[in-house]
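Re: the request from the purification team.
They wanted to know what the chain is likely to look like in 3D before they choose a buffer screen. I agreed to run a prediction and write the result into the notebook, where they can find it.
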Amino acid sequence: QVQLVESGGGLVQAGGSLRLACSASGDIYSINAMGWHRQAPGKERELVAAVGSDGITYYGDSAKGRFTISRDNAKNTLDLQMHSLKPEDTAMYYCAVRRSTTIVLTTTDWDYWGQGIQVTVSS
């Protein structure tokens, strides 16, 4: 089992920045791909950004050019730096990991999830 704990969310004005952090514990050696997902009210959960154990990254269209994902394997952490935030970025953000090295968009194929953290961007 892997436990994931997110931190860093909150309320920010449009145009502002936030940095989300995820700390992993437990069976960390099983972790390969790591990612940040989000779910806005009334919408499906979507993959925002991910990084494989090889360092290869994926960014969803909404994140490109504004968000940066990074992982520290020594500390077992995953960060998401978000800039130029928009009201449409408002959502619950979840850290998730996969035992597989493959980054997949299907949220149900991610093995472990954090509890989520709220990000609210005011206009």
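For the purification team: The CA atoms of residues 10 and 50 lie 21 Å apart.
Please add any questions underneath this entry.
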